[in-house]
Design brief:
Helix content: 40-55%
Strand content: 5-15%
Radius of gyration: 15 Å
Distance between the termini: 9 Å
CATH class: Alpha Beta
CATH superfamily: Response regulator
Strand order of the largest sheet: 2-1-3-4
Oligomer: single chain
CATH architecture: 3-Layer(aba) Sandwich
Number of domains: 1
Number of helices: 6
Shape: globular
Largest sheet: 4 strands, parallel
CATH topology: Rossmann fold
Length: 163
């Protein structure tokens, strides 16, 4: 199964969920083709490298040895999304951006909010980035890892039970 994750910057939410899904799928011997990207242009996050490093460090502390690389929604990313069985998006604004960018090729039912995919309704996963501060909101950032791991576990369970 091909599964993609989308948030605004591809710095925290989509990267973390991608990492946790990969980790839990491997533990379940479930082969998935995973991809993540962000809808924002590269220049929207001038501190992207530092922010990604913070996410990577936290994932390392939690036992996930990952190397993160930011992807934006360029033409190659759009091709990944088009080939995905499901596209999981962090919030409704990102969902609408994905649907617009994919155009007539989009199959609306394949583009789900993180919570929607696991059967918990159409609610947004709030961004961890505080644009006014130009940094991660430390409280949201600290809480998001446990919640995204929970979502990842349920995502893997859903895919495994559907196989």
């Amino acid at each position: 199964m091909k599964l993609s994750f989308v948030c605004h910057g591809n710095i925290a939410r989509s990267q973390i969920l991608h990492s946790y899904v990969a980790h839990h799928a491997a533990k379940a011997s479930l082969e998935l083709d995973l991809f993540s990207c962000g809808t924002a242009a590269r220049e929207f996050y001038p501190e992207a490298d530092r922010l990604l490093s913070d996410v990577e460090s936290e994932l390392h502390q939690r036992g996930l040895q990952v190397s993160l690389k930011r992807a934006v929604m360029d033409e190659p990313a759009l091709q990944h999304l088009l080939r995905s069985d499901f596209i999981l998006v962090a919030d409704e604004k990102r969902r609408q951006e994905v649907l617009v960018r994919l155009g007539a090729s989009a199959q609306t039912q394949r583009v789900n909010l993180f919570y929607q995919f696991i059967g918990e309704g159409r609610k947004d996963f709030v961004d961890t980035y505080d644009a006014d501060e130009g940094a991660q909101d430390q409280e949201r950032f600290a809480r998001c890892f446990d919640e995204l791991e929970r979502i990842a576990i349920l995502t893997v369970e859903k895919i495994r039970s559907a196989s």
